[in-house]
Amino acid sequence: xxxxxxxxxxxxxxxxxxxxxxxxxxxxxxxxxxxxxxxxxxxxxxxxxxxxxxxxxxxxxxxxxxxxxxxxxxxxxxxxxxxxxxxxxxxxxxxxxxxxxxxxxxxxxxxxxxxxxxxxxxxxxxxxxxxxxxxxxxxxxxxxxxxxxxxxxxxxxxxxxxxxxxxxxxxxxxxxxxxxxxxxxxxx
Length: 188
What we know:
Low-confidence stretches: none
Largest sheet: 5 strands, mixed
Mean pLDDT: 86
Structural class: alpha+beta
Strand order of the largest sheet: 2-1-5-3-4
Number of strands: 5
Strand content: 5-15%
Radius of gyration: 23 Å
Order of helices and strands: EEHEEEHHHHHH
Number of helices: 7
Shape: elongated
């Protein structure tokens, strides 16, 4: 088990632990944007950069293995400036119109993240409204849709994609069986 110092705090971690794990164990907060517990680190955002052994070399703490005798600095001007720059680069082209990959892939542009939250929270009425904004016949498409959206589901990186088509069908069935199904708006 390697012992290292993070911002002057000595910490011992299990073999294979990352510098980010060591910092957390020492009670030091290092920001991250691309870390998902239980998944392989992407080291793509570079918001978790740290300086090693007093050198000018900066490394992503989420993907750097903790080694015996390391001296890690996470709160020095060089690191803070590098993190700020990484964040600016990530958000530089951002227009504030974020859409999940599953939503962008869906030919009908269903707001899948909102749908999953609504179903999780048991708010089927709102889920029906959400689905109907994009899909006029969710009871049908929830059964025959090729589910291209599931290919883009980020959850697939961790374990399995969300069964989005099945959620759509569930919402439509719950609406139909609820006694007063929502009818589409019609002209008089």
